[in-house]
């Protein structure tokens, strides 16, 4: 073969390879789209018709044994939905030198776009080679993992290999709120479990020190707006917080690290009370009710606290820094529009729990919520 013929053959191969490659990529993208289903209310109606009743029944028992788990279970779902792994994986085909085209292994070409919203990734344990979200600092304070697995075990008995851990968590969070006398909302189902959990991705979670701008930006990155921010922050009507997550407001707000270095956005009487509970910056064990007196019940009293500059975190206090969120806080602080807050909360939860989830053939149905399948 002379040089001309060789280079013309090569260029033909190259162009055919390119178009084959383009074809395969297009087919795969189309396939991935087709494989992505939708969330549906009656997703398990044939495969696990009693799923909601089973979760509810078990949640009643769990909260009877440990009423303080309502907050942690709501928070688990929030963290699950907020931490998303964004990856674009291309797998290069094995190239057999001369027979490039004939050996195009269709199945080797995968274009996988993972935008994982609520996908159960928060539940995964770390492995020897990967530190999971669970073990990242913002999440060291998460609780309730055992209860999720307890419900998963019951569902595995009733309908093996059917219900995803991500769906279980979405249902548990809803039931936790309902059983704490809060609002209910429809949970559409069909989420699939992700196979990735990365500790470094928890930087997507807003820290308690965040200012208003940062909160808006971090919620915005999840498709949630200012209204969702002020409404979902109302989740802090439930549960407790460790001193060290807000003690910078008491002793080291600007970094001066002395008794007078306090957050000016905190009510003075409340500040004194918090200082008597949290004696130092190092205290990472003392728990504080975020909505003192009613931390086990879901109500609008969180807003009354925030309006009085008694929100526990700097992030809570920041809801007063913007006219729109401040107006919402003040309206709810009157206690006369609780039904409005309930219906807003339900709406924002539906939004948060459905953005960018895995569906259809994406991900998997985990056998154990803390482990990816084999
Ligand atoms: C706006 C940004 C948010 C920030 C900065 C934030 C931060 C925090 C922090 C630091 C804690 C204390 C954890 C501990 O010490 O154990 C906490 C607890 C909690 N958060 Fe948030 N959070 C935010 C939004 C949300 C949302 C959207 C929800 C749910 C709708 C939520 C529900 C909860 C619950 C229920 C607890 C109590 C957990 C327990 O009792 O163990 N939070 N949050
Ligand atoms: C987390 O680590 C993975 C793998 O090391 C990397 O691909 C990803 O971009 C990192 N994410 C962030 C938010 O740093
Ligand atoms: C808000 O916090 C961000 C960093 O998280 C900072 O860059 C910004 O200057 C702060 N904005 C205000 C108004 O303090
Ligand atoms: C006090 O705050 C500064 C600035 O945020 C920080 O660098 C320092 O580590 C804090 N001191 C303690 C004892 O936590
Ligand atoms: C609390 O602080 C102590 C001492 O600094 C540390 O050894 C421990 O790991 C911390 N606990 C948690 C849950 O971070
Ligand atoms: C105990 C612990 O490491 N707590 C960390 C939890 O996450 C917050 C941020 O949300 C960190 O500031 C804490 O240090």
TrEMBL record:
Substrate binds at residue 206. Its main location: secreted. Heme b binds at residue 236. Binds 2 calcium ions per subunit. Binds 1 heme b (iron(II)-protoporphyrin IX) group per subunit. Its cofactor is Ca(2+); heme b. Pfam families: peroxidase. One of its GO terms (biological process) is hydrogen peroxide catabolic process. The record marks 75 as: Transition state stabilizer. Residues 38-373 form the Plant heme peroxidase family profile domain. It catalyses: 2 a phenolic donor + H2O2 = 2 a phenolic radical donor + 2 H2O. Ca(2+) 2 binds at residues 237, 291, 299. Disulfide bonds join 48-159, 81-118, 165-369, 243-278. The active site is at residue 79. It comes from the Eukaryota. Ca(2+) 1 binds at residues 80, 83, 117, 119, 121, 133. Gene3D superfamilies: 1.10.520.10, Peroxidase, domain 2. Removal of H(2)O(2), oxidation of toxic reductants, biosynthesis and degradation of lignin, suberization, auxin catabolism, response to environmental stresses such as wounding, pathogen attack and oxidative stress. These functions might be dependent on each isozyme/isoform in each plant tissue. PANTHER family: PEROXIDASE 25-RELATED. This is Peroxidase. It comes from Eleusine coracana subsp. coracana.
């Amino acid at each position: 073969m002379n040089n001309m013929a060789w280079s013309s053959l090569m260029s033909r191969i190259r162009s055919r390879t390119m178009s084959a490659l383009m074809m395969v990529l297009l087919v795969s993208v189309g396939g991935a789209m087709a494989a992505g289903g939708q969330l549906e209310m009656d997703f398990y109606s044939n495969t696990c018709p009693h799923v909601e009743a089973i979760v509810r029944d078990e949640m009643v028992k769990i909260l009877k044994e440990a009423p303080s788990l309502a907050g942690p279970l709501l928070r688990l779902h929030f963290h699950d939905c907020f931490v998303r792994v964004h990856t674009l994986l291309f797998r290069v085909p094995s190239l057999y030198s001369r027979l490039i085209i004939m050996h195009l292994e269709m199945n080797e070409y995968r274009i996988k776009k993972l935008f994982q919203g609520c996908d159960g990734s928060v539940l995964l344990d770390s492995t020897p080679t990967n530190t999971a979200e669970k073990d990242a600092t913002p999440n060291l304070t998460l609780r309730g993992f055992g209860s999720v697995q307890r419900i998963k075990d019951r569902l595995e008995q009733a309908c093996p290999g059917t219900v995803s851990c991500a769906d279980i968590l979405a249902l548990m969070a809803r039931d936790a709120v309902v059983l704490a006398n809060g609002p209910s909302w429809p949970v559409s189902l069909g989420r699939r479990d992700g196979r990735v959990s990365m500790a470094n991705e928890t930087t997507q979670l807003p820290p308690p020190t965040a200012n208003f701008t940062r909160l808006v930006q971090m919620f915005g990155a999840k498709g949630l707006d200012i209204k969702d921010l002020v409404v979902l922050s109302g989740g802090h009507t439930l549960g407790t917080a460790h001193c060290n997550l807000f003690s910078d407001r008491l002793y080291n707000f600007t970094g001066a690290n002395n008794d007078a270095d306090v957050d000016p956005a905190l009510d003075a009487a409340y500040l004194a009370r918090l200082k008597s509970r949290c004696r130092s910056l190092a205290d990472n064990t003392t728990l504080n009710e975020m909505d003192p007196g009613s931390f086990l019940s879901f109500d609008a009293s969180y807003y009354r606290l925030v309006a009085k500059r008694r929100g526990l975190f700097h992030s809570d206090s920041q809801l007063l820094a913007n006219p729109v969120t401040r107006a919402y806080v003040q309206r709810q602080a009157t206690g006369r529009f609780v039904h409005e807050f309930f219906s807003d909360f339900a709406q924002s939860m539906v939004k948060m729990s459905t953005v960018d989830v895995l569906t259809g053939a994406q991900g998997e149905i985990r056998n154990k919520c803390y482990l990816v399948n084999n």
